[in-house]
Amino acid sequence: MKTGSLLTLLMGAMVAPSAAFAPSFGVAKTSSTTALGMANDKDLMRWARSSRSASADDRVVELKRPLGLILDEDDSGNVYVETLAPRGNAARTGIVKEGDIVTMCSATFGDQMWTTRGVGLTRVLSAIRVRAGPTVKLVFESPNETVSKAKNTAKTAQAAQDARQRAQAKKDSLLTELNKDEQKLKKGKFLGLF
Question: I want to staple 89 with a disulfide (CB 3.0 to 4.6 A). Which of 60, 68, 72, 172 is the partner?
């Protein structure tokens, strides 16, 4: 656990902002059990990075600072909730659970959000720290939801690929038919006039 940077989320108002997110040295990194075994990581990452807002089925939580949670990073760079403070702002919502993966975070200002999939703990903590205003919006997913989304994204990508292949096959078929018609016209009669 990275106590220097992680506990600052828990005690955010007590520590000066410049020292709050300083990296901790000499602390061993623990591996996480939230490593994602997705069918197609690239499709999910591409889809997630292109979106600038949460979808209707996402768990969007707006939290006041201090957030009342400790975040950590798994081997894939995904940030997850390691611990909830029992009386913290995150625990009071009843929506955030330990082990949930943070998939999106508020932009510096405005309503846009950006993906946090695979970006690492340092960038997520920086985004939370520089957010203008007293609240931060975060999108959470359980590991099961993440695997389900990865499968759905892979299915959608495969369906799109299949549709492109069918369209190309139809185009090729029509082109072949057009070439045959042109050959017939070159060989002989054109509407019985020649």
Answer: 68
pLDDT at 37 over 50: no
SS3 at position 114: strand
The pLDDT mean for the chain works out to: 75
> Which is higher by pLDDT, 13 or 153?
153
Residue 176 has pLDDT above 60, yes or no: yes
Structure tokens at 174: 């029509």
Structure tokens at 3: 């106590």
Answer whether residue 190 shows pLDDT above 60. no
> What residues have CB less than 8 Å from 183, skipping those under 6 apart?
none
Partner residues linked to 62 by β-bridges:
137
At 6, list the tokens.
Answer: 């992680």
Q: In angstroms, rounded to a whole number, what is the distance separating the alpha carbons of residues 30 and 160? A: 39
Length of the chain: 194
